[in-house]
Amino acid sequence: MSSGLYRNIMLVEEKEYGKVFKFEVGPIKVTKKIYKPTIKRFEKWLNIINKEDYFSKFDFLLTGSFPNYINNTLTWQTWDIDVILIDDGENSLEDIRDTLIHTARVALEECDFYLDIYYQNREDVELNKVCYRGKIENCQPYSFEKKGLCYAPHVKRDDRIVSNWNIGDKVIEGLWVTRLEFPSFKQVQRINEGFTYDNEIYLKEYRKIFLDHE
């Protein structure tokens, strides 16, 4: 069955589940019901950010568990959507920071789910794919490092830090270098058990396939 048919089936069958959290990430602070991400919520978010000028200036790569959810191959629970903001170095640090914050704010404040988004240049992104596609044999947890930029030093949920980010220097106000060690223990466990992450999806391609004709 094609991924398009799976997506359409999931749209019909998906159920909502949420919990009230006090949530703080960088300048974004909410206390509200946060939902596990669904295709409906994801597409609502995508239709909002698609109208912004930055959508044409950057690429957005959907990674992590949510491509599995879209393809109906997810066998574990996920509470967030992972996106990498990408360019070839032509955008300013201020544009990177403001785009990270705005996309994350739209997700939390308007679409009621948590978006885990950070920036990497295009060259560094390729390393991620090796892990997420399950092509590392005998891989040890936290044996690789990926470097990026993030808009918050940590994530707080109900006043407790729940992120495990290795934050480096502040490059401008509101933007930090982050060094993420991967794969995590849970990622290695999934790979060893035969559960792999589906291929990443560029959001512009997703729009072209599923949304531009609706």
Distance between the termini: 21 Å
Number of strands: 11
**Total domain modules:** 1
Biggest sheet features: 4 strands, antiparallel
Helix/strand/pairing category: alpha+beta
Percent of residues in beta strands?
A: 25-35%
The share of residues in helices is 25-40%
Give the overall pLDDT as a whole number. Answer: 87
Topology pattern, helix = H, strand = E: HEEHHEHEHEHEEEEEHEH
Shape: globular
Compute the CA-based radius of gyration: 17 Å
Q: Please, how many helices?
A: 8
Enumerate the spans where pLDDT stays under 50 for 5 or more consecutive residues.
none
Give me the side-by-side strand order of the main sheet: 2-1-7-8
Fold and architecture overview:
The protein is an alpha+beta fold and about 210 residues long. It has one domain (about 5-210). Helix content is about 35%, strand content about 30%. It contains eight helices and eleven strands. The strands form three sheets. Strands 2-1-7-8 form a four-stranded antiparallel beta sheet. A four-stranded mixed beta sheet has the order 5-4-3-11, with helices on both faces. Helix 2 (about 40-50) packs across helix 5 (about 95-110). The two termini are about 20 Å apart. The mean pLDDT is about 85.
